[in-house]
Amino acid sequence: MLREPVTFQRAGSATNVDGNVVPGAWAILSSAPTKGMVRPLSGYEASQAQRLNAEVKLLVVVRYTASLREGDSVLIRGLRHNIRYIKNVDFDNKWLEIDVEGGVAV
What we know:
Thrombin, subunit H, 7 strands, six-stranded antiparallel barrel
């Protein structure tokens, strides 16, 4: 069931020379699960302003962890997907169903 390698990441921040906080690199969440079940939910392509934009929505099921939150991302087969919603199945703290979106601005 949990066969697909997944890597959860969180955006870091850094301070530039002027002391302003700027987005930094993505850091791997070491406490997060590394295997999951990935199912496609939907996908489409749209042409807008002479550009082709592709978008995919996936459901990722992993064992429970309290370290994930919306705003994190997950790498699946080398592609970054944004976490949109995290559902604790039956509030049992055993499984998480995570809605992710890919192909959009990260």
